[in-house]
Amino acid sequence: MPLTPAIEEPQIHESAQGPRVTPAASRTAQTPRPVPGPRPAAVPRPGRPGPVRPAPPAQRAAQAAPGPVPAAPTAPSVSAAVPQVQLIPASAEGALDAAEEAVDLLLDTGRAPGDILVITTGDPHPWAAHELSFGEASYWAQHDAGDDVFYADAAHVQRAGGRSVVVFAANGGPAETTAAALPVALTRAGALLIVCGDARQINSVLGAGV
């Protein structure tokens, strides 16, 4: 299955054919960066000492946008049966940062926060680690609410439900973890799968498994 590694636009309009991947030349967005709208400010949980939970990406984007927030553009429809695949070449150390940039770009170009699932293979995203400190019930309740970006470890990919866009960060961990989780992530993506990681490793997994 061809992977067209481009992040200039979050949707691609051409299904990939074949097992090889050509790394994207640049991840710099060339279009205006509208924000999908402000989100409520994070507040401390009653009776729980410690830091306030980190603001989700949608809130960070809204806080950074000066002046009135423009309306989000309507994303073109994509067949849910065959998700598009994009590759952002990155080292294991840089994969999570690349995934964060991809999420910010998706939000800035009109994707709703609840449309996005982020999966990590190595260290968990700081948001996930913080939320899990309050217990798995609270953590998965936010997943089920489906109103914000959700971050999950590859070990939990089977439990995560499908979303329009899945961002997969191959940020370390055993190679077997990536090999097992990436095909499942593809089945969770309704319209688009964005993979941040080593192109050769991703090619090997998706080329053999799809």
Could you write a compact summary of the structure shown?
This protein is an alpha/beta fold and 210 residues long. Helix content is 30%, strand content 15%. A 5-stranded parallel β-sheet has the order 1-5-4-2-3.
Question: Can you characterise this structure?
Answer:
With 210 residues, the protein is an alpha/beta fold. It is 30% helix and 15% strand. It is built from six helices and five strands; from the N terminus they run H-E-H-E-H-H-E-E-H-E-H. The protein has a five-stranded parallel β-sheet with strand order 1-5-4-2-3. Helix 5 (175-188) packs across helix 6 (199-209). The protein is globular and about 35 Å long.
State the order of secondary-structure elements, H for helix, E for strand. HEHEHHEEHEH
Q: How would you classify the helix and strand content by structural class?
A: alpha/beta
Number of strands: 5
- What share of the residues lie within helices? 25-40%
Number of helices, counting only DSSP H or I runs of 4 residues or more: 6
Shape: globular
Q: Give me the side-by-side strand order of the main sheet.
A: 1-5-4-2-3
Mean pLDDT over the residues: 74
Distance between the termini: 6 Å
Major sheet, described briefly?
Answer: 5 strands, parallel
Radius of gyration: 17 Å
**Could you name the ranges where pLDDT drops below 50 across 5 or more consecutive residues?**
6-53, 64-80
Q: Roughly what fraction of the amino acids lie in strands?
A: 5-15%
Q: Secondary-structure blueprint of this entry?
A:
Elements: H1 57-64, E1 84-89, H2 95-108, E2 116-120, H3 126-132, H4 136-145, E3 150-153, E4 163-169, H5 175-188, E5 189-197, H6 199-209
Parallel strand pairs: 1-5, 2-3, 2-4, 4-5
